[in-house]
Structure formats: C-alpha cells, structure tokens
TrEMBL record:
Keywords: Cell membrane, Membrane, Transmembrane, Transmembrane helix. It is a multi-pass membrane protein. InterPro entries: Poly_Biosynth_Transport (IPR050833). The keyword Cell membrane applies. This is Membrane protein involved in the export of O-antigen and teichoic acid. It comes from Desulfobacula phenolica.
Length: 482
C-alpha cells in the first residue's frame, strides 16, 4: 500500500496547530508569569509539573500507542467501540483511585519534591487537574485514530481561550499566584472534558469487552519501564537543581526548557502521532525501506533547522517576553533544542522494535538513558547549574538515539540517505556558528537584522541541494506518492 507524503504533512500540520493550542498556554503566559511570579515560584510550578508527568506514566503507560495499534486491527466499528470504551472505563477507575490516594499523601509528596510540606494543597489541586487530563486522553486519542484533526484542533483552540482567560483573571486580577494558576488549570480541564466527551459520546456506542483489555495491557505495560526511564532522563535535572542548587535555578532552567520544548510540541510530537499509525501501512510496500529512509531525512532536516531558528532568535525573544531576572534562561535553549533533534531520531527508529513486538527493548534503552542522565547531572549540575542540566540531557539523548538506531537497524533495516544527512548537518553547523556570533544590544533591531538574512539560508539550502530541493516542488508534493 502506497502512502501520500501530503497526507502525513497535512495531518501533522493540523495536529501541530491543535497541540500548540492545547499545550502553548504556559508559553503564551510567560510574560504574565514572569511578572507576577518569582523565579522560585516558577520553580515550584515546574516541580509540581514534574510530579504530574511521573503520575501520567504510572497511570497511562503506553495506552495511546496501544490504542493506535489495536484500533487499526479491529475488523468492525463495534469492535473499535468496545476497545475504546473498555480502555476509558479502566483509565477512569485507575485515575480516580490514584488521585484519592495521592491527595491523602500530599504532605509527603510536597516534602519529597519541594523539600517542605507547605505546598501540600498545591499538590491536591494539581492532582485534580491531572485526573481530568488523564481521562481526556482517551477521546483525544480516538479523534486522532479517526483522523478527526479539525475537530481536535477546534476543541484545543476553545480550551486555550478559556485557559488564557482563567489564568489572566486568577493571576493578574485576583493576584492568587501559584494557587491561581492551579485553579485555572482545573477549570480549563473540566471545560476541555465537556467538549471532548460531547463529541466522543455522540460518535461511539458505549460497549464493554474486558477481554480486549488484556491485549492492550500486554502491549502497553512493558512500555512503562521505558516511559519511566525517559521520565528520569528528561526530569531528573530539575530534581538535581532543586537539591544541589535552588528553586531559582529550577525556575530559570524551566523557562528556557519551555521555549526549547516548542520544537517537540510543534514538530516531533504531532509527526509521531500520525507516524505511529502510518508506518504500519508503509511497511506493507515493497520499497518500504527506501520510503522510511526518505521520511527520516525530511524529519531530521525539519527538526534540525527548527532548532537552528530557535537558537538564532531566543536571546532577543526572552529579553522581550520575560522579566529581567529570567534573561539568563536563553543560554540553555540552544542546547536543549538540539537535544530534540536526537529525540526525534530516537522516536523514529523505535519502529524496528514495534514491528517485531520487541517493546521490552525500549525499556532497556530508556533505563540506560536514565542512568546516563543521572550520572551527567550528578557531575555537571554542582558546577554549571542550569547549563550542566542542559548538557546532561543533550548527552543522554544522543546516547539513547545512537543505541536505538543500532538496535532498530538490526531488527528492521531501512535505507538511510547518508549524503543528504551529511549535507544537512554541515549546513546547519555552519549557520549555527555564524548566527550565534551576531550580537546587537537592542532586541527588536537584532531580530529584524536576523530576519532580513533568512533568505540567505534558503538560498544555501537550494545551492547545496539539501533534501534534493532542486527536484522538489509543491506540485510534486501534491501529486506524487512516496
């Protein structure tokens, strides 16, 4: 079965916009937060977010990936409805039990993550928001499996508007600080659930068949150690900064990380959501190995140049958007942004494990990545603080990407375009070192100067024929099947 590159780009673009709407609230509120919160307050919010991320792994595991896999294998609409509804009931029950237990233990959790029991009420509010976020994941995944990208985006936009309004009112008008942020989060999550389930219940017949749950869990549970390993590798830096530095360092680092995370939110995650479904279709083609190699080249190029653009403009952007005490956050952004280039490589080459049902390999790789991250943070954070944490995540990401590529190529070999990848790396490196040395005191002028030189980048891309751009045209993208 052939596939259309246009279809993947189309849905990735729409989901990217939808994900931006649903996840960009923290980014859009940076000017508000950095003026009404101290770096220490920002650090508290980040550590609470870290706890919720860990909770999400425990409760959800690889459920989303399992839905994509088994939903496509269902032979009828009835089977699909049974699968989705059974998973929803399971997630709802488990989440409710978890949240009740966690609320009772909130003083202990506050002590572990924030070195004091004073923030236990914040933990309870965060857990309530987490409950609504978790159960919303099932209808969201259903919309993606059904390729209802426009509905997904409209709901995300509506939630964004409500969330912005609640945050501005609670933080800027009522001056509730961190508590206002958490109240706004709960209210926005409830609103989001109302919208999602109004669509979900209208399209899905409520049917249960718990023998399907065994298949789902047998696929997803082996992925939980992998997710935990990835959590440690991605979040342990905040823990080391909290206990080996201070919450101010956590706040500054977290602001920089939030900017760099836009690479993942806008490109990597939306692509992978579509790719997890399309790769099984492409595998059936005779020339699948070539198609996989070409798609990786495009993904690598897009993410690398996105990280480059982020690095070029980040110092000026933070100077404009954030309060002066947060300006040093720009230093960690290029390091973390380029780590997402390797993160995309790691996620892409998991296909070898998925095709051969070797998901346990992902656990070994992720746990090794976590170990490397712990070691690097232990060595670097005491001396370099925020920069040490950034370099630690870059080193650990490169490590797991290289190992995943090595293992995947032995399970399912694809034809990599080494010449194209080399040209992308060389051009990207040249442009990075060229722009990083441009220093203009006034942010707006600096941005205008850099923007005026952007056409030179596209000229160099065409001169060096990166990704075969001379033979690539919009009409070919629309008409051809890759």
């Amino acid at each position: 079965m052939s596939y259309s590159l246009t279809e993947i780009i189309k849905h990735t673009s729409i989901y990217s916009f939808g994900r931006l709407a649903s996840k960009a609230i923290g980014f859009l509120l940076i000017p508000l937060y950095t003026r009404f919160l101290t770096p220490e307050d920002y650090g508290v919010v980040e550590m609470l977010t870290m706890f919720i991320a860990l909770s999400g792994i425990v409760i959800q595991g690889g459920i989303s990936a399992a839905i994509f896999k088994f939903y496509n294998e269902c032979k009828s609409k009835i089977e699909q409805d049974e699968l989705i509804c059974t998973i929803l009931v399971f997630i709802f029950s488990l989440s409710l039990l978890f949240c009740v237990c966690t609320s009772l233990l909130s003083p202990t959790i506050s002590l572990i993550f924030l070195k004091t029991e004073d923030f236990s009420f914040y933990v309870v509010l965060m857990v309530v928001s987490f409950f609504f976020s978790t159960i919303a994941n099932v209808p969201e995944t259903y919309l993606m499996a059904e390729k209802k990208s426009k509905i997904f985006t409209l709901i995300s936009l509506a939630t964004l508007v409500i969330n912005l309004g609640f945050n501005i009112y609670a933080v800027a008008i009522l001056n509730l600080g961190i508590e206002g942020i958490l109240y706004a989060s709960v209210a926005a999550r409830v609103f989001n659930n109302i919208l999602l389930f109004s669509v979900f219940l209208n399209k899905v017949s409520f049917k249960l068949k718990f023998n399907k749950l065994k298949q789902v869990l047998s696929f997803s549970i082996p992925m939980i150690p992998a997710e935990l390993g990835l959590f440690v590798y991605a979040y342990v830096d905040r823990f080391f900064l909290t206990h080996m530095s201070d919450l101010q360092s956590v706040g500054i680092y977290s602001l920089g990380y939030k900017f760099a995370f836009m690479i993942s939110m806008l490109l990597v995650q939306p692509f992978m959501q579509i790719w997890q479904q399309k790769m099984y279709e492409i595998k059936k083609d005779e020339d699948a190995a070539i198609k996989f190699g070409k798609m990786f080249t495009y993904l690598f190029a897009f993410v690398l140049f996105a990280a480059l653009f982020m690095s070029i403009f980040i110092k000026d952007t933070i100077a404009i958007m954030a309060a002066p005490e947060f300006i040093s956050a720009w230093r960690v952004v290029p390091i973390i942004a380029f780590s997402y280039v390797f993160k995309s490589m790691y996620l892409f080459f998991q296909m070898g494990m998925f095709f051969n049902s070797k998901t346990s390999y992902l656990s070994y790789i992720a746990l090794l990545g976590a170990l490397i991250s712990i070691c690097m943070n232990y060595l670097l954070v005491p001396h370099l603080k925020e920069l040490g944490a950034a370099f630690a995540i870059l080193i650990s990401t490169i490590s797991i990407a290289a190992i995943t590529l090595f293992v995947s190529q032995r399970l399912y070999k694809i034809k990599l375009e080494f010449l194209e990848l080399f040209k992308i790396i060389m051009l990207g490196s040249f442009l990075f070192f060229f722009y990083i040395n441009i220093s203009i005191e006034f942010p707006f002028i600096s941005i205008m100067v850099k923007l005026s030189s952007i056409p030179v980048i596209f000229f160099l891309i065409r001169v060096f024929n990166v990704c075969n751009c001379k033979a690539f045209s919009f009409s070919k993208l629309i008409d051809s099947r890759y």
